[in-house]
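User: Hey, my collaborator sent me this sequence without any context and asked if I could get a structure. I don't really work with proteins. Can you help?
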Amino acid sequence: MQAVKRAVAPVAAVLHAARRPATYSGHFKEAASTMVTAGMWPLGFGDRGLLELGDPARSSPIDTPVLLVHGYGANKSNWLFIRRYLNHAGFGRVHALNYNPLTADIPELAERCATRADELRDHFGAEQVHIIGHSLGGIIARYAVQVLGLRGVGVCITVASPHAGVRLARYGSPIARLSPLASGMQLRPDSAVMSLLHSSARELPTRFVAYYSNLDLIVPARNAMIAEPELDATNILVKDHGHLSIMLSRRLAESVVDQLAAAEGIAGYGAPVRALATAIRPAVAADAGRRSSAACR
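Assistant: No problem. I've predicted the 3D structure and written it out in C-alpha coordinate form, which is a compact way to encode the shape of the chain:
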Protein backbone atom coordinates (compact mmCIF):
# COMPACT_ATOMS: atom_id res chain seq x y z
CA MET A 1 0.00 0.00 0.00
CA GLN A 2 2.81 2.39 0.86
CA ALA A 3 4.51 1.60 -2.44
CA VAL A 4 1.31 2.48 -4.32
CA LYS A 5 1.01 5.78 -2.44
CA ARG A 6 4.61 6.68 -3.27
CA ALA A 7 4.02 5.87 -6.93
CA VAL A 8 0.80 7.87 -7.15
CA ALA A 9 1.95 10.89 -5.11
CA PRO A 10 3.99 12.57 -7.90
CA VAL A 11 1.11 12.20 -10.37
CA ALA A 12 -1.37 13.64 -7.86
CA ALA A 13 0.97 16.56 -7.18
CA VAL A 14 1.29 17.32 -10.90
CA LEU A 15 -2.49 17.19 -11.42
CA HIS A 16 -3.07 19.47 -8.45
CA ALA A 17 -0.47 21.96 -9.66
CA ALA A 18 -1.92 21.92 -13.17
CA ARG A 19 -5.06 23.61 -11.86
CA ARG A 20 -3.09 26.74 -10.94
CA PRO A 21 -2.28 29.26 -13.72
CA ALA A 22 0.88 30.28 -11.82
CA THR A 23 2.21 26.77 -12.38
CA TYR A 24 2.57 27.35 -16.11
CA SER A 25 4.25 30.73 -15.76
CA GLY A 26 6.53 29.20 -13.12
CA HIS A 27 7.69 26.45 -15.44
CA PHE A 28 8.14 28.99 -18.25
CA LYS A 29 10.41 31.00 -15.96
CA GLU A 30 12.36 27.85 -15.20
CA ALA A 31 12.88 27.13 -18.90
CA ALA A 32 13.97 30.70 -19.55
CA SER A 33 16.27 30.64 -16.51
CA THR A 34 17.94 27.48 -17.79
CA MET A 35 18.95 29.32 -20.96
CA VAL A 36 20.07 32.39 -19.00
CA THR A 37 22.12 30.23 -16.64
CA ALA A 38 23.81 28.46 -19.55
CA GLY A 39 24.56 31.81 -21.18
CA MET A 40 26.14 33.20 -18.00
CA TRP A 41 28.23 30.09 -17.29
CA PRO A 42 31.36 31.33 -19.15
CA LEU A 43 31.35 34.46 -16.95
CA GLY A 44 32.02 32.39 -13.84
CA PHE A 45 34.70 30.04 -15.07
CA GLY A 46 37.83 29.68 -12.92
CA ASP A 47 38.64 30.37 -9.30
CA ARG A 48 41.55 32.58 -8.31
CA GLY A 49 40.77 32.30 -4.63
CA LEU A 50 41.18 35.33 -2.41
CA LEU A 51 43.19 37.09 -5.12
CA GLU A 52 39.81 38.17 -6.48
CA LEU A 53 39.12 40.21 -3.34
CA GLY A 54 41.87 42.74 -3.79
CA ASP A 55 42.93 45.06 -0.95
CA PRO A 56 41.53 43.84 2.41
CA ALA A 57 41.68 47.42 3.67
CA ARG A 58 39.03 48.49 1.16
CA SER A 59 36.11 49.90 3.07
CA SER A 60 32.72 48.17 3.16
CA PRO A 61 29.56 49.43 4.87
CA ILE A 62 29.20 45.99 6.48
CA ASP A 63 32.29 44.27 7.86
CA THR A 64 31.05 40.68 7.74
CA PRO A 65 32.08 38.86 4.53
CA VAL A 66 29.71 36.58 2.64
CA LEU A 67 30.79 33.29 1.03
CA LEU A 68 28.74 31.95 -1.88
CA VAL A 69 28.76 28.24 -2.83
CA HIS A 70 27.14 27.26 -6.15
CA GLY A 71 25.29 24.05 -7.00
CA TYR A 72 26.05 20.90 -8.97
CA GLY A 73 27.35 21.62 -12.48
CA ALA A 74 27.14 25.39 -12.01
CA ASN A 75 29.76 28.00 -11.12
CA LYS A 76 29.97 31.40 -9.46
CA SER A 77 28.12 33.07 -12.36
CA ASN A 78 24.91 31.78 -10.72
CA TRP A 79 25.34 34.44 -8.05
CA LEU A 80 25.48 37.52 -10.30
CA PHE A 81 21.87 38.53 -9.56
CA ILE A 82 21.86 37.90 -5.80
CA ARG A 83 25.34 39.36 -5.46
CA ARG A 84 24.12 42.65 -6.88
CA TYR A 85 21.44 42.86 -4.20
CA LEU A 86 23.98 42.07 -1.49
CA ASN A 87 26.32 44.78 -2.74
CA HIS A 88 23.53 47.36 -2.88
CA ALA A 89 22.59 46.53 0.71
CA GLY A 90 26.15 47.24 1.89
CA PHE A 91 27.67 43.76 1.82
CA GLY A 92 30.83 44.71 -0.06
CA ARG A 93 32.90 41.70 0.95
CA VAL A 94 31.27 38.98 -1.13
CA HIS A 95 33.27 36.06 -2.48
CA ALA A 96 32.18 33.01 -4.50
CA LEU A 97 33.83 29.60 -4.27
CA ASN A 98 34.16 27.52 -7.44
CA TYR A 99 34.53 23.74 -7.34
CA ASN A 100 34.17 20.64 -9.52
CA PRO A 101 31.64 18.16 -8.06
CA LEU A 102 32.96 15.35 -10.28
CA THR A 103 36.42 15.33 -8.73
CA ALA A 104 35.59 15.40 -5.01
CA ASP A 105 32.96 14.12 -2.63
CA ILE A 106 30.84 16.21 -0.28
CA PRO A 107 33.13 15.89 2.79
CA GLU A 108 36.12 17.06 0.74
CA LEU A 109 34.17 19.93 -0.80
CA ALA A 110 32.98 20.90 2.69
CA GLU A 111 36.62 20.99 3.80
CA ARG A 112 37.38 23.40 0.96
CA CYS A 113 34.37 25.50 1.92
CA ALA A 114 35.47 25.62 5.56
CA THR A 115 39.03 26.54 4.60
CA ARG A 116 37.82 29.31 2.29
CA ALA A 117 35.49 30.65 5.00
CA ASP A 118 38.37 30.82 7.50
CA GLU A 119 40.61 32.48 4.91
CA LEU A 120 37.87 34.99 4.15
CA ARG A 121 37.49 35.95 7.82
CA ASP A 122 41.25 36.23 8.26
CA HIS A 123 41.61 38.26 5.07
CA PHE A 124 39.28 40.94 6.39
CA GLY A 125 39.96 40.48 10.09
CA ALA A 126 36.26 39.74 10.61
CA GLU A 127 34.77 37.92 13.57
CA GLN A 128 32.32 35.94 11.50
CA VAL A 129 31.24 35.08 7.98
CA HIS A 130 27.85 34.34 6.41
CA ILE A 131 27.53 31.45 3.93
CA ILE A 132 24.92 31.03 1.18
CA GLY A 133 24.69 27.81 -0.83
CA HIS A 134 22.47 26.81 -3.74
CA SER A 135 21.42 23.18 -4.23
CA LEU A 136 24.49 20.99 -3.58
CA GLY A 137 26.27 24.12 -2.35
CA GLY A 138 23.83 24.36 0.54
CA ILE A 139 24.59 20.79 1.59
CA ILE A 140 28.31 21.53 1.39
CA ALA A 141 27.87 24.61 3.58
CA ARG A 142 25.70 22.77 6.11
CA TYR A 143 28.16 19.86 6.27
CA ALA A 144 31.04 22.29 6.90
CA VAL A 145 29.21 23.93 9.80
CA GLN A 146 27.39 20.98 11.32
CA VAL A 147 29.74 18.04 10.74
CA LEU A 148 33.17 19.64 10.41
CA GLY A 149 32.46 22.16 13.16
CA LEU A 150 33.26 25.29 11.15
CA ARG A 151 33.15 28.16 13.63
CA GLY A 152 32.46 31.82 13.14
CA VAL A 153 29.49 31.35 10.79
CA GLY A 154 26.71 33.76 11.65
CA VAL A 155 24.03 32.68 9.17
CA CYS A 156 24.07 29.65 6.89
CA ILE A 157 21.51 30.06 4.09
CA THR A 158 20.59 27.25 1.73
CA VAL A 159 18.57 27.66 -1.47
CA ALA A 160 16.77 24.67 -3.00
CA SER A 161 19.18 22.28 -1.26
CA PRO A 162 18.22 18.60 -0.87
CA HIS A 163 18.42 18.29 2.92
CA ALA A 164 16.33 15.12 2.76
CA GLY A 165 18.19 13.88 -0.30
CA VAL A 166 16.94 13.62 -3.85
CA ARG A 167 15.66 10.41 -5.47
CA LEU A 168 17.24 11.14 -8.85
CA ALA A 169 20.63 10.77 -7.20
CA ARG A 170 19.93 7.05 -6.74
CA TYR A 171 20.62 6.58 -10.43
CA GLY A 172 23.49 9.02 -10.75
CA SER A 173 24.45 9.93 -14.31
CA PRO A 174 26.78 8.48 -16.96
CA ILE A 175 29.23 11.33 -16.33
CA ALA A 176 29.07 11.11 -12.53
CA ARG A 177 29.77 7.37 -12.57
CA LEU A 178 33.11 8.01 -14.25
CA SER A 179 34.35 9.59 -11.04
CA PRO A 180 34.56 7.48 -7.87
CA LEU A 181 34.41 10.69 -5.82
CA ALA A 182 31.43 12.20 -7.62
CA SER A 183 29.41 14.08 -5.02
CA GLY A 184 26.06 13.68 -6.78
CA MET A 185 25.64 10.06 -5.69
CA GLN A 186 25.97 11.17 -2.05
CA LEU A 187 22.72 13.11 -2.34
CA ARG A 188 20.72 9.86 -2.23
CA PRO A 189 18.24 9.98 0.67
CA ASP A 190 19.83 6.90 2.24
CA SER A 191 23.48 7.84 1.66
CA ALA A 192 26.00 7.99 4.48
CA VAL A 193 26.29 11.76 4.06
CA MET A 194 22.54 12.36 4.32
CA SER A 195 22.30 10.02 7.30
CA LEU A 196 25.17 11.81 9.04
CA LEU A 197 23.57 15.21 8.52
CA HIS A 198 20.39 13.92 10.12
CA SER A 199 22.01 12.08 13.04
CA SER A 200 24.52 14.81 13.93
CA ALA A 201 21.97 17.64 14.08
CA ARG A 202 22.36 19.55 17.34
CA GLU A 203 21.99 23.03 18.73
CA LEU A 204 24.56 25.33 17.14
CA PRO A 205 25.35 29.06 17.39
CA THR A 206 24.92 29.37 13.60
CA ARG A 207 21.42 30.29 12.45
CA PHE A 208 20.12 28.20 9.53
CA VAL A 209 17.72 29.50 6.88
CA ALA A 210 16.43 27.23 4.10
CA TYR A 211 14.59 28.49 1.00
CA TYR A 212 12.38 26.13 -0.97
CA SER A 213 9.87 26.33 -3.82
CA ASN A 214 6.60 24.61 -4.63
CA LEU A 215 7.53 24.15 -8.31
CA ASP A 216 11.04 22.75 -7.95
CA LEU A 217 11.11 19.52 -9.97
CA ILE A 218 14.66 18.65 -8.90
CA VAL A 219 14.37 19.14 -5.14
CA PRO A 220 10.75 18.94 -3.95
CA ALA A 221 9.70 21.47 -1.33
CA ARG A 222 9.64 19.04 1.58
CA ASN A 223 13.17 17.85 0.73
CA ALA A 224 14.56 21.38 0.59
CA MET A 225 13.48 22.20 4.15
CA ILE A 226 15.72 21.68 7.16
CA ALA A 227 13.43 19.53 9.29
CA GLU A 228 15.72 18.60 12.18
CA PRO A 229 14.29 20.47 15.20
CA GLU A 230 17.71 20.66 16.87
CA LEU A 231 18.89 23.17 14.24
CA ASP A 232 15.84 25.40 14.76
CA ALA A 233 15.98 26.41 11.10
CA THR A 234 13.75 28.97 9.43
CA ASN A 235 12.20 27.52 6.24
CA ILE A 236 11.01 30.10 3.72
CA LEU A 237 8.85 29.52 0.65
CA VAL A 238 9.73 31.32 -2.60
CA LYS A 239 6.55 30.61 -4.46
CA ASP A 240 6.20 29.52 -8.10
CA HIS A 241 9.86 29.15 -9.01
CA GLY A 242 11.91 26.23 -10.27
CA HIS A 243 15.33 24.95 -9.26
CA LEU A 244 17.19 27.49 -11.38
CA SER A 245 14.71 30.34 -11.71
CA ILE A 246 14.74 30.75 -7.93
CA MET A 247 18.28 32.11 -8.30
CA LEU A 248 16.94 34.93 -10.48
CA SER A 249 14.05 35.71 -8.16
CA ARG A 250 13.82 39.24 -6.82
CA ARG A 251 11.82 37.91 -3.89
CA LEU A 252 14.62 35.53 -2.97
CA ALA A 253 17.33 38.18 -3.31
CA GLU A 254 15.43 40.68 -1.16
CA SER A 255 14.68 38.06 1.48
CA VAL A 256 18.32 36.95 1.66
CA VAL A 257 19.36 40.56 2.18
CA ASP A 258 16.68 40.92 4.86
CA GLN A 259 17.92 37.84 6.71
CA LEU A 260 21.58 38.90 6.68
CA ALA A 261 20.89 42.56 7.41
CA ALA A 262 18.68 41.62 10.37
CA ALA A 263 21.44 39.36 11.67
CA GLU A 264 23.85 42.30 11.42
CA GLY A 265 21.44 44.45 13.42
CA ILE A 266 21.03 47.01 10.63
CA ALA A 267 18.23 49.49 11.29
CA GLY A 268 15.10 48.92 9.25
CA TYR A 269 15.53 45.17 8.85
CA GLY A 270 13.97 44.02 12.10
CA ALA A 271 15.69 41.33 14.12
CA PRO A 272 16.82 37.79 13.38
CA VAL A 273 14.68 34.86 14.50
CA ARG A 274 17.13 34.33 17.33
CA ALA A 275 20.31 36.01 18.43
CA LEU A 276 23.36 34.48 16.74
CA ALA A 277 25.33 34.03 19.94
CA THR A 278 22.46 32.75 22.08
CA ALA A 279 23.20 29.29 23.43
CA ILE A 280 19.81 28.54 24.99
CA ARG A 281 16.61 29.92 23.52
CA PRO A 282 13.35 30.59 25.34
CA ALA A 283 10.99 27.65 24.94
CA VAL A 284 8.36 29.66 23.11
CA ALA A 285 10.81 31.03 20.54
CA ALA A 286 12.30 27.60 19.98
CA ASP A 287 8.88 26.04 19.47
CA ALA A 288 7.86 28.76 17.04
CA GLY A 289 11.03 28.39 15.04
CA ARG A 290 10.58 24.64 14.72
CA ARG A 291 6.92 24.62 13.81
CA SER A 292 6.52 27.58 11.50
CA SER A 293 7.73 28.34 8.02
CA ALA A 294 7.57 31.76 6.44
CA ALA A 295 6.36 32.64 2.97
CA CYS A 296 8.33 34.94 0.70
CA ARG A 297 5.62 36.52 -1.39
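In plain terms: Residues 2-296 form a domain with the Rossmann fold fold (CATH 3.40.50.1820). You can pass these C-alpha coordinates on to your collaborator as they are.
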